[in-house]
## 1
Amino acid sequence: MEFLEATVTLADAGPTDAASAAETRQHLVVIGNGMAGCRAVEELLARDGTRFRVTIFGAEPHVNYNRIMLSPVLAGEKTFQDIVINDHDWYARHGIALVAGDPVVAIDRAARTVTTKSGRVTGYDRLLIATGSDPFIIPVPGHDLPGVISFRDMADVDAMLAAAGEGGDAVVIGGGLLGLEAAHGLSLRGMKVTVLHLMPTLMERQLDEAAGWLLKSALEARGQTILTGADTAAILGDGKVEGVQLKDGRVIPAKLVVMAVGIRPSVTLAREAGLAVGRGIQVDDHMVTSDASVLAVGECVEHDGQCYGLVAPLWDMCRSLADGLVARDNPYRGSVTSTKLKVAGLDVFSAGDFSGGEGCEDIVLRDAARGIYKRVVLQDDRVIGAVLFGDTSDGGWYFDLLKKGEDVAPIRDVLIYGQAFASGGGLADPKAAVAALSDGAEICGCNGVSKGQVVATINDGARSLDAVRSTCKASASCGSCTGIVEQLLALTLGEDGVQAAPKTMCKCTSYGHDEVRRAIVEQRMKAIPEVMQTLHWSTPDGCSSCRPALNYYLLCALPGDYVDDQQSRFVNERLHANIQKDGTYSVVPRMWGGVTTPTELRAIADVVEKYNAPMVKVTGGQRLDIFGIRKEDLPAVWADLNAAGMVSGHAYAKALRTVKTCVGSEWCRFGTQDSTGLGIRLERGFWGSWMPHKFKMAVSGCPRNCAEATIKDFGVVCVDSGYELHVGGNGGIHVRATDLLVKVATEEEAMHVAAAFVQLYREEARYLERTAPWIERVGLAYVKARVVEDEAGRDALAARFWHSQSFSQDDPWAERVAGADAGLHQPLLTAAE
């Protein structure tokens, strides 16, 4: 999913119009847009979606994202979009006002208002504090030098990525989970990393000495330097970080220092408001603070003397909080915690008390060749602790035994071999262990999902892993429980049931993309609500996954008849510009075939100066990208560019982006054909066509391929005897060279084949499927049979494409300049009155 807007309307302290004056619901204000705050709101909505109107304040300029997954973002395994939990459609769908990037700085309990950094005041009936925790910074000399950062949010990740882009040495202070993940990510990004850890054992709170040694050895084998027993004395540098000095005199060079030595509950706001605070904000069993109108949840709270830094207790707290708000009795009684992690790709699990000692018995299994270590600690024939390294598949079972306090004497001799063996299944049936888990056994620690919840989700119609993930969120985060979820699918549905179940579009339907498209065409459906009604959608309005897909499928099936549904598009497509991380937009005017004129260049320069655009960037597609345009200025920018004859470049759209060209035979001594001229013809012919995904073209004037035509969705390589037409290339994360589709003799043939190919892709690919995976799925032979070998079929495809284009080539910028959808361009953040 594309990155959505980072700021929406602010709920004011008092009513501002007749509609709000008539609002009778209580106002719940949430301080904290993180995992705990939003999960609490989710739990409340699941119980009663009409009792409260909700405003959420977030310090970061983002929607709610999974902080646990910052490490894969740093490592390059995921993008920010991949870790978003609740996108803007979720807030809008539930009528939640989000104020992002404007943190609350004061609470007035007498007036029942909160005040933000910008000075806005908002009233509340009930207040929920979910401020999380603050990173602890060691107060050594030099700790405030530029280049010293923590690892808690996306801003920290961005800072680490910027430093890694320049290379050099990095020091991570702290050998806990966050420190090791930071070191792993920076190492993958090319930095030389040294980890400094005060204690003799890495992750000493989760691992015993043996497992800590295995982890240290594995990380060192991957190129990191791990120094345990290392006590930091000072951070060195003149105006910026240059190194870290240890108390034993050693100096470790560094241009970046990441502090990851621990966290503390964030209680300053609560303390200044006069709430009862110990180590954290003190709460009762329903998360109510010393003020009955104020609740608190998450890492910032203290319950019965305990503060928790893991996600599983947070989910328990949120359930009790929501039940309390709707007058249900479900008190929070504290949490027994386990930790199942993947540290730098290495599986680690721990639970309970593994310190051992008098009256305890250790059962240990070591497999040096496979790097596996298992230790279970017993007391009075009951499991009180466990540590697993390298193979954590039985972690859930050991944790279940620990929580229940079951007598394990009958299986003591085989306990260490795991649940399947201990239950009599031996090694013959690997699913026996999962089948024997109790319904209350935790499957997904990241999202607090039990076995019973997963099975209920499957019984309610989730027929695939994706459907389970989108419904109850099991295995939707770190993915370490994916294997167990797949086994639960097989156990619940039977092997044949899982294999036969289609991959659904989303959680709203049991149909796959192909089935939905086929039904739209065969039954001649003409509107999104009609599709949802006919195909028995399980949600009233769909979601951010299915609505854009349905909108596209209807557009493709009914050119000229179907009216594009703007609300089913992502923000970039709605506003015809690309949103940036600071909330401004970038604008990319179209330059046909990469060719421009003095008039166009002057118009771009005038726009940059007139609207104070901070940067103009030449893109990889031979266009100019103007950054830093405010939302309310977009129509005026487009008007100025339109006046110079420039139209929307669709750089924001699931459509033709650019046609990249070289100068070809007109100027180049190696050119064999007029590649620039053909590129312009292609771009003028194909622009504006909505497609399943972004679509890129290129024309190279000779086999030297300067325009990189062989990594584009459709590429033309000019040769002496004509034109080689290539398809299915991709120059992104997974580079794929094109397949040769056919060779033709004339430009007209090239245009004709291109139209047929694009239309086949438009009609048969699934939404958000690029040409590369589409061709790999259906096979090049199939595409050739439809586009090359079947002449009548080719002509029909091309005819349908050009018919569709007769309704598609309207410049959206010009339409907005003329006043269409003017309301979309108002400022998003309204001031409180």
## 2
Amino acid sequence: MTPTATYRLQLQPDFTFSAAAKVVPYLAALGVSHLHLSPVLEAVPGSAHGYDVVDHASVRAELGGEQALRRLAGTAREYGLGLVLDIVPNHMAAAPRHNKALWDVLREGRDSSYARWFDIDWEAGGGQMLLPVLPAPLGDELGALRVEGGMLHHGDQRFPLAAGTAHLPLPALLDAQHYRLAWWRLARTELNYRRFFTIPELIGVRVEDPEVFAATHAKIFELVRDGVVEGLRVDHPDGLADPQEYLRRLNEATGGDCWTVVEKILADDEPLPAGWPVAGTTGYDALRHIDGVFTDPAGAAALERRYRDVTGPVGDRGGYWEGTVRRSAYKVVIHELAAETAFLVRTAGRVCAADPALRDHAPWALRTAIQELLVRVPVYRPYTTAGGPCPEAAEAAVSEEAVRQAKAAFPVEQEARAVDVVRELALGRLGTGPDHTAFCARFAQTASALRAKSVEDTAFYRYVPLISANEVGGDPGSPAVSPERFHAYCARLARDWPSTGTVLTTHDTKRSADVRAAIAVLSECPERWDQLLERVAGVVAPDPQLAWQAWQTAVGFTPYGESGESGAPDGARMVPALLKSVREAGLHTSWTEADPLYEQAVSDFVGAGPAGPGRRTVAAFNRGLGPYARAGALGAALVQLTMPGVPDLYQGTEREYFALVDPDNRQPFRTGPPDEKTVVTTAALRLRGERPKVFSESGTYTPLYATGPAAAHCLAFCRTGEVITAVTRLPLRLAEAGGWAGTELTLPEGRWADLLASPGREFEGGEGGGPVDLALLFAERPVALLSRQS
């Protein structure tokens, strides 16, 4: 069953299945059709997110267990709602004490029946799996290790012992294990198991193995068969060895009737592989287009110029954003993904050693070729013949131009031929042996990790002229989307992926939609932003880049009706968010090489400025921009709720919701008083429920265009001839230009009632009614939702 709309709930020990059941009546009244639950399988105790799965066979006890989940499904059914589950096929928690499969591998080594579950390069580790879990080098921690109860102990950590080794003296005992305890810093260079991104605490799972797939999905399939679950959200499919084959098996096992979306991050204009048996993505591509259409391109360009003047970034030939991405990619691939690169070098070396024609490619040349090609992959993953249905797209992702640029890193032409070898291996065209297949899959998996870490988690924090654009799937170098481009995107969705997911806020967004809407208004008034910076210049920041980002964060995070006095508690939430941003950027401090003095200076500045007394200055600034931020937030919400696709509402976003990056946005769900955004949300959701065919796969999407001097400020479309959405875009520019005077929108034939306005507000369309004056249409609100009356 395809949902009409889903509502994401973040389950955690402080918000369990029974707590979710209590809000079912509220969510049913809101108008959604399905609850979208964060991961429900057994996770590391205390986990606030559930992506650190430790047991695929059990529903998480801390959430209430399986019976509580089934009761929640029953309660939901009573109110006409279904459940959608977030599933995590790519990785588990590398926590031996809680992960019984990993515990068995550590105890039995390659002979474990679970050894096939994980990508472990035993030869690279000399027969041992590296466990980078110690706070200091092993020599410094020997005194903290002890054998007790048949296990090896280090603080609260427990590790199994290989049979017959418990009596050995400590040095010999350590050498006799199937694992090697090591300092955590060795993970970057010495790790010999596949992990999630750069996180050694999450170990990759080989779901491409049919037995592993069956074992890790049996409980999910049981819940689907029993009718407990009607939809699935697949976390990070790019991490899998063969995403298309995985999704084919998933579709087959669920009978083809389970609505399934994938957390696939698409680059600009990158298509979702047509052969994937899914309804579409989780919606970050929609987020990018919605945010973009409410961003002023001219003002964004002016902000970028001013940003360069103020912060003094170093540009390069590819443009500053592109240069930032490239430098970030080099940093990540050389340092943070060194272990992954080493695996690819070893694998390519074996391929070359087996072929006399390739034998003279030295490891350094292969490493250079791999790194130079990886940093030039412009998408999250090249889908090769071994990893998906798009070899043509893969060739574009590992292009001839990328080869030419990569070869420039070599001093000798013959040595540069290593780039050709790596490209052919990456595209799955050099051979068919196990090493060829392994290289092809791991190159693609590493490319996705590199893209995520270098763009989402590094470049987005280094390049911040307009931080509302720095969201997953976004393009900070070109943040604006024209109405024509937005309409073309929606037309493609309606044609190819009508049941795809759409989102504005998620558990992973760096800033909630309302925060981004307020910041986006700065693109309409870059000169006012300059004036604000002048007014707060007395609060000295550790560096100008931080100041720029911190004050923009304050603009987005300070509700426009706030005096500045009442905002102190919320303002304090800015400190950890900005500390996270400077650590992710890695310019002055980082997660692994922290600079305590710099970080203290960051905290002091934020407390003394944006989150402290400066909050009053920002509040006064925001009062002048409040109506325009409101228009952008309401417009984005209504567009998401009525455009092609299935809208997913993140918990609490049916009303004003101001949140920063996790963990700030993952607090336990609480209901709140309704507001104007709730009115818009409820009206749109109820309309979707009452007229599902209007928004279904058989529905249509038709752009509507205003005429007159302010035509560019109206974004409008009609769904299946029955529902019209019309919203105001760039409202500050509109006000400065004189408003809607002389601007009209011609409605299709019929009589149309505005569901967001006072009762009785109706408009006549077609030849009988003539065009509608937009000043009249938007007299009560900057948005309108028109329903054809029978």
## 3
Amino acid sequence: MSVLTRKEAQTRAQLLDVHRYTVDLDLTTGEETFDSRTTIRFTARETGNTFVEIKPETLRALSLDGQPLDPERLDGNRYPLDRLTAGPHELTADATMRYSRTGEGMHRFTDPADGETYTYTQLFMEDVQRVFAAFDQPDLKSVFDLTVTAPAGWTVLGNGTATQATDGRWTIAPTPPISTYLVAVAAGPWHSVTTQHAGLPFGIHCRRSLAPHLDADADEILGITRACYDRYHEKFDEPYPFDSYDQAFVPEFNAGAMENPGLVTFRDEFIYRSAVTDTERQTRAMVIAHEMAHMWFGDLVTLTWWDDIWLNESFAEYMGYQTLTEAALPRALDSVRAGETPFPDTWVEFGVSRKGWGYDADQRPTTHPVAPDPDAVPDTASALLNFDGISYAKGASALRQLVAWLGEKDFLAGINTHFARHKFANATLADFIDNLATATDRDVHTWAATWLRTTGVDTLTAHVENTGHSWNLAVDRTGDRPHRITVGAYDHSLDTQTGTDQLVLRERFELDIPQNGTPATQPGTRPDLVVLNDNDLTYAKVRLDPHSWNTALTHLSGIPDALTRALIWNTARDMVRDGELHPTAYLTAARTHLPHETDLALVNGVLGFAATQIADRYLAPQDRPAALATLTSLCRDLLRRTEGLTAKDWEQGLGTRTPGSPDPGLRLTAVRHFIDAATQPEAIQEWLADGTVPGGPELDPELRWRILTRLAVLGATDEAVITRELDKDPSATGQEGAARCRAALPTPEAKEAAWQAMFTDDTLSNYLFTATAQGFWQPEQSELLHHYVTRYYPDATALAARRGPAIAEAAGRHAFPVHAIDAQSLQRGTDALDAPALTPALRRKLTDQLDDLRRALAVREAH
């Protein structure tokens, strides 16, 4: 299959104007394929040659202006249109298309819970060709007019309002001009909750087996949707540009969500069938806000070519977090007490869960600018590699720094100019910067050059000097970006009620970096703690002065602001990764301070890094048992802190609590991490047998499968127990849980069966492949798995070539031998990168994984 190059796209865009697609899909023709008939009306500006893309199972017929074309001329995914004359044309294509099981094109899923079948499209980048014929590039926008024939009893959803003309035949209202990759259809016996807001129909949809769980959260989901919609209309001059707003929670979705105009698709894990924390609910709310921001930035105004994907994702990432913080979220949410906002500061969660993603990506050999040079994205295959922590987290951080430097008023004025100038059209980075420049006297072009066209992470290092009646702060900077930061100065204070030594904020002041050689001078004695970037408004690693760092490590839980604590934890994380802080020092800090931490996102983020990186990778194998013992001891402390919860607390969560009372979300987090760190099976076996953790919670399906997975790793369960559990929970997530458990069993037979399922028979869906891979590699089973490290590289290379980018991504991310931390494994992987058969998607994942392996070895050697 040929990938589209930027040069080809530019040539085709100069030749064609595309006006309208009329697409007729028939989903009643079988379980493996569906029928697709397409008419494209377009104009050629001059005589020339071009092509149309389609990836059919069978191409039955084509015609141009009523004249039949030879289907045999299809070359891979391209049909040539030679000697196209200037003027209007009509191209028709009639094809049989294949359903996908990998979340690409038209994905088909049969729910094991009730046997119902669902289909939905994911057409991003170049997968529209799997559904209908198209001139598939983002700057050839068009009106799309779709008709879908579906089985009786199904509901069809699309970019516009859908009406059922006859039984099974649905007509979707024509779209405004949009890009090919944004067309969306979702069909099946959906369970739906609908409402009206601001004169538009709003709906949320899921498969029927999840109906009770959607209904339980419908008020929350719709309330957040309405609040974000209203807040965006306060920010943006352009009104919402489509005729309806549906959100479909679909099975086996590869991304978190997709911003199809009028029909956003989400992975249906966001419909919670088991207990979740308020942080997880906040994440779902942020994704809702993120995708809605795309309706303007991405859908109304679309990138011209994929080098500007950051314009979509960085903007939506920033707006998602910022708008969720600002929106007047409904007070009816269960998680709200009188006088409180529904969620904590969303930027704390961003700092602890997203920003590290950007920092890590930006220090690998695959780093790239937020806005790469167009020549660095020559085709769609290379563009797909840039959906990473740089395009999302670093880009959002850069925009947050831009707002701090520019001011929100001018930033929004420039954004609104951008929308007005390019609505229903396409734009580039240059257009975006030019439009920002209309709203300010600041030199945004130079800012863009230093922030968006460069790579790497700056490091800001504080030097504090006490001069008697004042103190001086000098900041060293590695890197060339200017930074506007907030500096926080904190002093010790004795809490007379508790007798504990805490830190209180003395002052915060702004500082521009570089300082041009002049230290900042503040009155008074030097503070006990000086924190650079205290509000986390810039993107840079931070190093405190030695006195402040010692204070931070010993008094971290006494810092009053959660965002400041998040920045200190990120500093500790960076120092571990850079070999500047011993991994056990991080564990000691976690053991000391997490029992007193009040922000759930911080607890989960710190525990996650301590478990998956420090215990599993950065410490030598002989030190891992002690690390796991530290984690289980810490989790026991958290469990003791959250004793006394009632059944009503578990049912209604935070809404029933008075300040200072136990947090069920904190207890749930502790239970999960206790299970994952267990080295002896007895305690969690008792929980599984009793169906509850003493003091709660009762074991829901997620916790039961979590325990069973850990028991499988420890060799304390078997196939018969897994089968009985699957009989109790035959759902899709139950199937994934069983696959994960079977792959985790420490027997040669179980490992070989899992390997064959992943790399040989090609029948696993994307989700079942991931679950199997997650169970397979376990640090406790290194001897059993040793020979699979050698097998991984050729088998993954062949798999990626057969099954495409989505499975290549899963194979590189989840099936990689991540716990094989030794020089031999690194050399074996490095040699594999020379294989010419590596697909771009797998090569990128392997390069990143091997760099992380190299870093883990360096951390071990440093200590």
